[in-house]
Amino acid sequence: MSVTTDYYAVLGVRRDANAEDIKKAYRRLARELHPDVNPDPVTQERFKEITQAYEVLSDPDKRQMYDLGGDPFAPAGAAGGFAAGFPFSEMMDAFFGGGTTARGPRSRARRGRNATIRVDLDLSECVFGATRELTVDTAVVCPTCSGEGSAPGSHPSTCEVCNGRGEVSQVTRSFLGQVMTSRPCPGCGGFGTVIRKPCPECDADGRVRTRRTVKVRIPAGVEDGTHIQLAGEGEVGPGDGPPGDLFLEIVQRPHQIFERHGDDLHCTLTIPMTAAALGATLQIQTLDGPANIDIRPGTQSGQAIPLYGQGSSHLHGPGRGDLVIHVTVETPVKLEPEQEELLRQLARQRGEESPPGRFSPGEQGFFSRLRDAFNGR
To answer: What structural domains and CATH numbers belong to the chain?
Structure first.
C-alpha cells in the first residue's frame, strides 16, 4: 500500500476521530473481512489494508507522521537527529529490555474477584461456634461453553494477523541501527486466538452469574468484626480463571442480658438489701444453662462476682473467658409501717439513726471494681 492511501477512508472514520472510534471501526471491519469469515483473495487483501491502516492510526507517532504527509513506515532520520514522529520510546524499550522481549500470547483466564458477605450471629453462636448454609450471588463457570467462551461446537481459532503469537513486530532504522519493537496484536488483543462465535449464554466471558449455597463452619470464639477467609470460594475468573476468595464478616447481635468484652461476658444482678446484708444463694441463667451463685453477707452494690470459665471460647487457643456478675443492691422506695419500724429499730441498735456518712476522693470505676473482685478484695 502506498503512502498516498487514505487510511481514514480505509477505516471509514473522520480525520479527527479519537482512538476509541478508530478501534471500534477496525473491529467492526475485521469481523466482516477476516479470512476465516471471507476466505476469497479480494477480501484477504482488503483485510490487510484495514490492518495496516489501523496500525498507523492507532499509533500516535505514526499517525502524526502520516498527518504531516510523511511515510509512517519510512526509515527514521540521519544520525544528526530524529525525524518527526520517530518512536523514540519504542527504540529505548528495544535497547533497554522493553520492546524486544518475547511476551507471547496472554491468557484469557484471569483470577476471579474476592467476595465478602455479612453473617449475623447470636452471642451463643459466637461463643460456641455454629454451622451455617449461606446463599451467595457469584460468578461460576458457564455451563454451556465450560469456560471456553465459544458457542457449542466451535473453538477459538488462531489469529491470522499474528499467527497465534499475540503480538506483532516492526523493524525501524535509526542512527543506532535496526530496532525491532513489539506490541499486542490488534487483531486478537494479544490473546493469540479469536473467538468467532461467542457463547450465547456468557458472551465469550466464560462465566455466568448465579446463586449458590455454601455450607460453612463458624469457629467458636468469633466476635463482632471477625473476618473468616474461605479460599477458592469467591467468584470464578473470566476465561475459566481460578476463583477468588470468600470472606465472611461476622456481626454479633446484641444480647438482652450479657455484654461481651473480649472473651469475658458481663451482666448486672440486682438483689434486695436484705439478701446483700444476710447473704443468699441465687440461681442465674448463663449461656451454659442454670447456675447457682453465693451472695456473701455484707455484699455491697458494685461488687463483682466472677464465674471462671463461663465466658466465650478463645478463638486461637483452648479454654474460655469468664462470666463477671456485677451486683447492684436495691434499696426499697416504699415501706409498710411495720417494715419501717423494724428498720428504725435496726438503726437504733446499730447507732445509725444520724449517720455521719463517708466521703471518698472519687467513685470507683467499673474496671477498678472488676480488678478488686478478681484479687479477692
So the answer is: 1-74 (1.10.287.110), 76-104+157-194 (no CATH), 115-150+200-252 (2.60.260.20), 259-374 (2.60.260.20)
